[in-house]
Design brief:
heterotrimer, A alpha/beta, B mainly alpha, C mainly alpha, B: mainly alpha, ABC transporter involved in vitamin B12 uptake, BtuC, two-stranded antiparallel sheet, 11 helices, C: mainly alpha, 2 domains, globular
């Protein structure tokens, strides 16, 4: 009896697998020659799912802008999410299955920091260009030809924060970071650069997210008499912590990582600190605070697809991560147009040629402009919404970082710039 | 040092109030039906979202409590009659029923995750002013929450001690067969149990998000061990026990957080639950009559 | 075709690892009646220990962890197995008492939650939420390309699973196994004839924990990284569902269950066209696991309590026989 039940179950599963595979192959056959796929290898669910939302928030506008301008070499682009769930054990089969079943894959947005060590070799040997967001400093000297990184390594943001604190004469630092993976990923860069720049770490506090109170941590920080607090955590935690810090009279200048300059965090902390927020908070971001033609085009694209964007959609108008994803896709698409090819093995090496500065190049700010210029036979330099893109020999391009304050409507106001050269000049041990 | 302690106790009372409402609901449900309902947290989340949606559609701040309570009551009744009872009919015992609630919690939690797009939504009831009581600094909202939980306790005690229904509830919790033999309408009492405990569950969910000022799919989950610990520590079926146990759990958690490492306050809460489960008299196989059978 | 080959090789490795998990749980649950809802923590400790002993000393800032001894991978596997055994000994000593089964299950589940909190809260232990990466591959000096290596590793994992399968079935058929079944079905009689019930249960728990540790070590040496997101408490339910589907107490069933649930049932949704927003399908997968769990419980509510022979047991009556105490209102 049981054997029969099991037999039925096996047959049923086989039928389902067969049907699904048939559906998938039929789908890709039908679409070949018509659409090209961009795969997003990122955490779409789980504790790091905000990374997936940041990515989707920037990719959708990019694909919209590219498709609206006629697509790439006559083909339209579509997005396919590949959920890493924030851990490499889930990422590996997901990516390998995607590679096995996706024809017309032209690029990957990702992989994320948590799965990069496992996934980068896999994608590289499959010859798929990656616009990676891996934050490990080991990729500063990357040798995989298909790996490209527009994001600064996690350590760069921390170094910029330390440089900024030193510039302002703030030497005694309290580090307040959430125990979630995003915050913990940014923390080592902050600590290591502080050591290199001889700042003093007077308090080091890790916050478990979503607790009703952080009284003990607040008291530790207050007792250490810091001159500045460097921080990253999720929005709810930040609101609770800084609200209690203010109540206990311990509010000092706050320097937040790039991840703090996102709408939920700013809203929560602004709500907790009231008017003191505008005076005391500085965020260190990578995207320029000034609105350039590229930024305007990006924001128009976000508005156009706001129905598809994760909610609240308007937070992606100034989300530095989403903006970087957008630029990465546009750069890939322009490289494809420049080489008249949809094959990664052909266009991969052309990516720097459409972005890096050079003599006689026409500067363009959108995909449409770039496509038109390329068709007119010109060489182009795409200056993106993140600013100048200049890939070095290790396929990294990260520009200056900017210290910004926030207005009451959560817009950035520039306080000063920390250049890439200044950041690179700071030695980081053990990265 | 003393002011840290007093302040921690103050925060502990606030945390305890939030736990207490849920724990009182859980203990009534557990005490009577004997179902170790691990989907209680998921129902809290559902009620919390109901209040959030109501808030978005214009139902003002504190009325969300009523919305959440009703949502919790209705949903719990559906689960109790539609799910738990069906499994009991097919022969499930205490342990199997707990497994059923686990599976249910998976389904509900991930359904909420799917529908909510993994988002966290801000939920602000009213901008809250600070109140100073000695060295205790809490917000007005938190003080109201304390009063709510005390009010719930008083209401429950009045119900259980002074009304006929209350007597019937207590009788059934103690010995269901005897209660039936005495002519108590046990089926109706079970329905009432689902409604009452569900209402408290929903209320607790809304209270939690009013304090946290945000709602997401994980709202009920990590909160649940503290609630279960308080309910079992206080003795299944006893709201006063649950209230006192919540106070103990809340204060211990906050004092640990104040003097030790805040990251470990949740571990302290979990640890207390483990110790409670290991040490309660009802934990030996084959305990008292009222605690070994499912009453559904 | 090569792309498929990589994918299938990875699935084969996962299959082997999951078989080890299922064997471990089957030992603990099917033969000793211990509901180990905290299973995943034993796999996690094995993975972490294997990772940190293979890596060199911690750089201190960017990836903090204990040990860091740069030992060969074989030793790392042995240590992973030992770690699983030690952890289960410690936990078993206080949680294997004569406790109401639903409490015992809840205790073990809570312990795995505590484990997650501790690892995330105390970063110097295993690098907190970000976990450990960069674990080198065993025998990478061999002249194999990536594809050959993956298949070789898959073969190695299957071999390990096969050996453990043989050992476990042999144990179950031995006198020791018979004693175990006696303690499971007829606890009081077994105690009366002199079997040390607690000691037997503890032995099973520790052996199961050792196998779990081994599975973690094998997994981390393949993937090269390990973080708390990889061992959420819900992973245990996937293996339990596999056991329910295949049949409790039955080792062949356990293997079949692993094939059906984590491998086929959880991989098929990847092939379906993506519906809704990115990430929706993954939530739906977990809902499906919960639904499968509830269905198994519905159709065999007595089947999850393994092979009960004797009907009349004090306190927990066998469900076929005793009528359910159901209160149907008169009105």
């Amino acid at each position: 009896m049981r054997l029969r039940k099991i037999g039925v179950a096996v047959v049923a599963c086989a039928i389902v697998v067969g049907a699904a595979t048939a559906a998938a192959t039929a789908q890709s056959r039908r679409t070949s020659g018509n659409t090209l796929t961009v795969a997003g290898v990122i955490a779409l669910t789980g504790s790091s799912d905000f990374e997936g939302q940041n990515q989707v928030g920037g990719i959708y506008p990019a694909l919209y802008a590219i498709n609206k301008a006629g697509g790439v070499n006559g083909d339209q682009l579509v997005f396919k999410g590949v959920d890493t769930r924030g851990d490499p054990a889930d990422a590996l089969p997901a990516v390998q299955q995607m590679l096995a079943t996706t024809s017309n894959l032209i690029a990957v947005a990702g992989p994320d920091t948590s799965s990069a060590p496992t996934i980068v070799p896999v994608l590289n040997s499959a010859k798929v260009p990656m616009m990676a967001v891996a934050g490990e400093s080991v990729y500063d000297r990357n040798t995989a030809p298909y790996f490209w990184r527009l994001f600064p390594p996690d350590a760069a943001n921390g170094t910029a924060m330390s440089l900024w604190a030193k510039r302002k004469g703030l030497i005694k630092v309290a580090a307040v970071f959430g125990t979630d993976s995003g915050s913990q990923g940014d923390k080592p860069g902050v600590i290591a650069s502080m050591k290199s720049l001889h700042l003093k770490l007077v308090a080091n506090v890790d916050l478990t997210p979503a607790q009703p109170t952080y009284l003990s941590s607040v008291r530790k920080v207050v007792a250490s008499h810091p001159q500045v607090i460097m921080t990253e955590s999720d929005a709810t935690t930040a609101g609770t912590f800084f609200g209690e810090l203010k109540q206990l009279g311990g509010l000092v200048p706050i320097i937040g990582t790039e991840a703090t300059f996102t709408s939920p965090w700013l809203t929560a902390v602004k709500g907790a600190l009231g008017s003191d927020f505008l005076k005391n908070y500085t965020g260190m971001i990578t995207a320029p605070s000034k609105v350039t033609p590229a930024v305007r085009a990006y924001q128009q694209a976000v508005t156009a697809v706001h129905g598809k964007e994760p909610s609240p959609w308007h937070s992606y108008l100034s989300n530095p991560f989403s903006i970087t994803y957008y630029d990465g896709m546009v750069a890939v698409a322009l490289a494809m147009v420049a080489t008249h090819s949809n094959k990664p093995s052909v266009f991969n090496t052309a990516i720097p040629s459409v972005t890096n500065p050079g003599k006689g190049k026409a500067v363009v700010y959108t995909f449409a402009q770039g496509k038109a210029a390329l068709h007119a036979g010109k060489h182009i330099q795409y200056i993106g919404a993140t600013g100048l893109i200049d890939f070095d020999k290790w396929h990294n391009s990260f520009g200056n970082q900017e210290a910004v304050m926030s207005t009451s409507s959560l817009k950035p106001v520039s306080e000063g710039v920390v250049t890439a050269k200044q950041i690179e000049a700071v030695p980081i041990k053990g990265a | 040092m003393l002011s840290t302690l007093v302040s921690a106790i103050g925060f502990g009372v606030v945390l305890a109030s939030i736990i207490a409402v849920a724990a009182m609901g859980f203990t009534i449900q557990f005490g009577l039906t004997n179902v170790l309902n691990l989907s209680f947290g998921a129902v809290m989340t559902v009620a919390a979202f109901s209040a959030y949606l109501a808030n978005r559609h214009g139902v003002g701040g504190w009325f969300g409590l009523a919305v959440g309570g009703v949502a919790g009551a209705v949903f719990t009744l559906l689960l109790g009659r539609g799910v738990f009872k069906q499994y009991a009919r097919r022969g499930a015992q205490l342990f199997e029923m707990m497994m059923v609630t686990l599976g249910l919690s998976l389904i509900i939690n991930y359904a909420i995750q799917a529908i909510s797009h993994n988002n966290i939504y801000q939920f602000v009831v009213l901008p809250s002013s600070l109140i100073q009581l000695g060295s205790i600094l809490i917000t007005r909202t938190q003080l109201i929450i304390v009063f709510i939980s005390v009010g719930v306790l008083v209401a429950l005690q009045l119900l259980l001690q002074l009304t006929k229904i209350g007597k019937a509830l207590r009788a059934m919790a103690a010995d269901p067969d005897l209660a039936r033999a005495c002519g108590i309408r046990t089926g109706q009492i079970v329905v009432l149990t689902w409604l009452l405990s569900g209402f408290l569950c929903g209320l607790a969910g809304v209270v939690y998000i009013v304090n946290a000022q945000s709602v997401g799919y994980t709202t009920g989950q990590l909160f649940l061990p503290l609630v279960v610990a308080a309910a079992i520590l206080g003795g299944a079926g006893s709201p006063i026990g649950a209230f006192v146990a919540s106070l103990i759990m809340g204060v211990v958690t906050e004092v640990v957080a104040a003097f030790g490492n805040a990251s470990y306050s949740t571990v302290a809460g979990f640890g207390i639950l483990v110790l409670v489960l290991l040490s309660r008299p009802g934990t030996v196989r084959g305990g008292q009559a009222g605690h070994t059978q499912l009453t559904l | 075709m090569t792309a498929w080959s990589y994918y299938i090789a990875t699935l084969t490795v996962y299959f082997g690892v999951n078989v080890l998990s299922a064997l471990s749980l089957n030992l603990q649950f099917g033969f000793a009646g211990v509901v180990n809802f905290g299973y995943i923590i034993f796999q996690a400790v094995g993975a972490y220990i294997a990772a940190v002993v293979v890596l060199g000393p911690s750089s201190g800032t960017f990836q903090q962890y204990v040990f860091g001894a740069r030992l060969p991978f074989g030793v790392a596997l042995l240590l992973a197995t030992a770690a699983g055994a030690v952890l289960s000994l410690l936990i078993g000593l206080f949680s294997l008492r004569n406790i109401r089964r639903d409490y015992q299950a809840a205790i073990l589940l809570i312990i795995s939650l505590i484990g997650t909190q501790v690892v995330q809260g105390y970063v110097p232990l295993f690098n907190g939420s970000n976990g450990i990466t960069g674990v080198p591959r065993p025998l990478s000096a061999l002249p194999l390309n990536l594809q050959q290596y993956q298949w070789a590793y898959a073969g190695w994992v299957l071999l390990a699973a096969g050996i453990v399968y043989a050992v476990v079935t042999w144990l179950s058929r031995s006198a020791w196994g018979r004693a175990l079944r006696a303690t499971r079905d007829q606890e009081d009689a077994a105690a009366a004839i002199g079997l040390n019930v607690t000691a037997l249960r503890l032995q099973v728990f520790v052996i199961g924990g050792a196998v779990a540790g081994l599975s973690g070590g094998l997994l981390v040496e393949y993937i090269g990284a390990w973080s708390p997101d990889a061992w959420g408490y819900a992973e245990t339910f996937v293996i339990f569902t596999a056991l329910f589907v295949g049949g409790i107490g039955n080792y062949r069933g356990a293997v079949l269950g692993v094939l059906l649930v984590p491998i086929i049932f959880l991989e098929v949704p990847r092939f379906l066209p993506q519906v809704g927003y990115p990430g929706l399908m993954d939530s739906v997968e977990w809902i499906a696991i919960g639904a499968a769990w509830m269905l198994c419980l519905y159709f065999r509510p007595q089947g999850i309590v393994p092979e009960r022979r004797n009907r009349a047991r004090r306190g927990e009556a066998a469900p076929h026989a005793a009528p359910v105490r159901e209160r149907v209102g008169a009105a």
